[in-house]
Amino acid sequence: MSLRIRVSFTGQLARAAGVKEQTWEAPEGTTPADLVVALARERGGEFAALLLNAEGQPRPTTLWVVNGEQVASEPGGRPLEDKAEVVLMTPIAGG
Amino acid sequence: MNPEDHLSGEDRAIYAWQMDLPGFGESAQAMLRRSTALVSRCGGVGGHIAFSLAAAGIGKLVLAHAGDLRPDDLNRQILMRHEGIGRPRTESIVATLRAFNPGIEVEAVPENVGAENVSRLVDAADMVFSAAPLFEERFHLNRACVELGKPFVDCAMYGMEGQVIPVLPGKTACLACLYPEMPPHWRRRFPVLGAVAALAGNVGAIEGIKLLTGLGTSMAGRMIFFDAAEMRWRTIGLERKTLCRVCGSGAEAES
């Protein structure tokens, strides 16, 4: 069974993606980190650089939100459930 | 209520409609009057924080903002004055606030927050508002607020989006819990519609007034995020990190 996940982007990430949200189909057992790496690989470029460091690991400064709650921006998190709502947020400091 | 908290006739005239708020009244008004707030940068976001705190009758504002006013500040920096271009921003800030509410104390500090002045500035405040365009300044404030146990409200915007994070040190996630290292992609110049900056600043002012007076329900521990392009609002539960380098066990390891 595959999962349908609704993913939203904010800040510089939305600007780099050119869209604010998309639906993503993923296999059961996909974690937030798996999702982030897969999205970065698909879109590449500036979008990927915002999400991953030079080693291809998720940047700890990007906020990951699952169903309204922040989760750790690192590998090994709890697998996502079908119809999960994920928000990926880049840090902002406009004052 | 202490004798010094009693409101004057002029106070009652100015703040009458505010004191009508359920759960506010004279006691909350008096709490505001004896409070000091530090606002780090009075630009697009921080100017609105300071203005709304002045309107609400905060006792004292300490406003940290260096540099001279530039023409490209004026699409958003509500405390500035056109005739102040080329002059220190603090001149416009003080003139505007004193003309608006001469009943509050305004101290302008023509410096940005940094390692040398942050402890002194934070220590003298009851509440701290963070609205600088650079993470370095925000991180200095965050660390000092955690060390000195001062509540603070981090307010930021980008384009049509804004976010506000009220922090109760030792109880809720601090800024370093969210951003454990310096965000590498943030740039000093960012797209800004003044009204969006105003929105972020005023949400921050509301959260600060809540923390100072007990009005309403504080969003400490959550981020308030909005996208004004879609008028979509979210509140996000934030994770306090036990290993945080500022408010968690990582701080002990660093010291």
Q: What descriptive keywords fit this protein?
A:
heterodimer, A: 95 residues, alpha+beta, Ubiquitin-like (UB roll), 5-stranded mixed beta sheet, 3 helices, 29% strand, B: 255 residues, alpha/beta, Rossmann fold, 9 helices, 36% helix, globular
Topology (SSEs and partners):
The complex is a heterodimer of chains A (95) and B (255).
Chain A: E1 2-10, H1 11-17, E2 21-27, H2 32-43, H3 45-51, E3 63-66, E4 69-71, E5 85-89
Helix pairs in contact in A: 1-3, 2-3
Chain B: H1 9-19, H2 25-33, E1 36-40, H3 46-56, E2 60-64, H4 89-100, E3 105-109, H5 118-123, E4 127-130, H6 135-148, E5 152-158, E6 161-167, H7 175-178, H8 194-213, E7 222-227, E8 232-237, H9 249-254
Parallel strand pairs in B: 1-2, 1-4, 2-3, 4-5
Antiparallel strand pairs in B: 5-6, 6-7, 7-8
Helix pairs in contact in B: 3-8
Walkthrough of the structure:
The complex is a heterodimer of chains A (95) and B (255). Chain A is an alpha+beta fold and 95 residues long. Chain A has helices at 11-17, 32-43, 45-51, and strands spanning 2-10, 21-27, 63-66, 69-71, 85-89. Chain A has a five-stranded mixed beta sheet with strand order 2-1-5-3-4. Chain B is of the alpha/beta class. Chain B contains nine helices and eight strands. Chain B is globular and about 55 Å long. Classes of the chains: A alpha+beta (95), B alpha/beta (255).
What is the CA-based Rg of chain B, rounded?
18 Å
CATH topology of chain A: Ubiquitin-like (UB roll)
Count the strands of chain B? 8
The 3D shape of chain A can be described as globular
Mean pLDDT level of chain A: 96
Instruction: Please give the domain count of chain A.
Output: 1
Distance between the termini of chain A: 45 Å
Helix/strand-derived category of chain B reads: alpha/beta
| Share of helical residues of chain B | 25-40%
Summary, kept brief:
Chain A has 95 residues and is α+β, with helices and mostly antiparallel strands. Chain A contains 3 helices and 5 strands, in the order E-H-E-H-H-E-E-E.
